[in-house]
Design a protein that fits this description.
It contains 13 helices and 23 strands. The chain has 442 residues and is α+β, with helices and mostly antiparallel strands. The chain has 3 domains: 6-78 and 134-319, BirA Bifunctional Protein, domain 2; 90-128; 345-439, 3-Layer(aba) Sandwich (Rossmann fold). The strands form 7 sheets. The protein has a 7-stranded mixed beta sheet. A 5-stranded mixed beta sheet has the order 20-19-21-22-23, with helices on both faces. It has a 3-stranded antiparallel beta sheet with strand order 5-4-6. The chain starts with 10 loop residues before the first helix and ends with a helix. It binds adenosine-5'-triphosphate. Adenosine-5'-triphosphate binds next to strand 10, strand 13, strand 16 and helix 9.
Length: 442
Amino acid sequence: MARRALEQVDMEKIVALCKRRGIIFPSSEIYGGLGSTWDYGPLGVELKRAIKDLWWRDSVLKRDDMVGLDCAILMHPKVWEASGHLESFVDPLAECKACHARWRPSDLADPTRCPDCGGPLTEPRMFNLMFKTFMGPVEDTAHVVYLRPETAQGIFVNFLNVLNATRKRLPFGIAQIGKAFRNEITPGNFIFRTREFEQMEIEYFVKPGEDEAWHRRWVEERFNWYLRYGIRRENLRLREHGKEELAHYAKATVDIEYRFPWGWAELEGIANRTDFDLQRHSQFSGERLTYFDEETNQHIVPYVIEPSGGVDRATLAFLIDAYDEEPDKEQVRVVLRLHPALAPIKVAVLPLSRNERLVPLARQVYLSLKALGRWTVAYDDAQSIGRRYRRFDEIGTPYCITIDFQSLEDQQVTIRDRDSMNQVRVPIAEVEKHLEERLRLP
Ligand code: ATP
């Protein structure tokens, strides 16, 4: 099927669709919004949850070398000293002496003048990107804590706890999904870069020397994961970081980049963090974060491979990649060609009209599918059947079930496929089986 090129996808249309259909809303909108923060609506929450569930299923449930974790957002301030974030998680900024706006030097045409008010700028200074807050009732520097800028550190500081509790042998990984916060200087592009976001991270512990091979395996595994759930191959690429670009903890990093409408940008990074974090936390905490290798009878500090992806960025990439407009008679048919596993609503049940004879059977089919608790199922009897199909196409619903007058006679319904628009008649008793075959996870 011929698809639109990504350059033609208009971000404004995606943002408008998200708002209109309850996928993503601007946060605190009745108060004028809060810069680049977003809320997930009834459909968005399903999409985001599907992404996280698939990631968890593929990264934890289906593997025997992975376990999960869910750590607190607030951590001991020493964590960020040990991790290097207090020292290195900084960006150079020039501040306007008049209006106090802060600017990245690379964004300035004239490095001495404020683009907003024309006021004089300071020399660039380093600003930390971590959100600071106070723990306890007294605003005292002794109680400063930070909102975590990555979920990873919670995994490192729990390394021994997990090891002792699970008796895992190397190589093994710990997975976590959770919120992270960064006081980004230039947030933007909808949910691409925000100050509050969610990460899906794996810290995969391996024997030193086996790290490079595992790094390659994880890059491949994660790249294929995006393909499996429908991102088109031509819109994904790998990019290796140059030496000067590497984070302070990394020996090598490969980014999975997506071709967003504004250009290629990072979707997920897979870093070889070496033994940096475990060594540093051993040093700062005084606890020996090591692993006893029975083969060599030695305590070793494992190396770590870290696939780290953003839930919100993945959501945006899946939305953009799925967005399609197709000429249809005089109109344009907007279709979200989401992989069925991601579709926020899997099945819609639609009586042909609000006729009093049709509605009871349609409600019965709807409620019995819903009661299974397996899929998100919607019921809609407003407007013409054609318009309802369009409404479900634009939110990516893979299957619409229509109940018509014939259904009253033969106990069969029509199931319409979103992509081909083909319709088949299926006995009501076989609807569940029909859907099950088509909605089975890959
Ligand atoms: P970028 O260079 O785009 O700021 P990064 O290299 O700092 O990203 P990482 O520290 O590698 O990002 O974080 C891992 C993942 O977390 C990223 O690949 C991205 O998907 C997500 N992420 C990071 N920062 C943000 C943000 N501000 N908003 C949304 N997602 C983010």
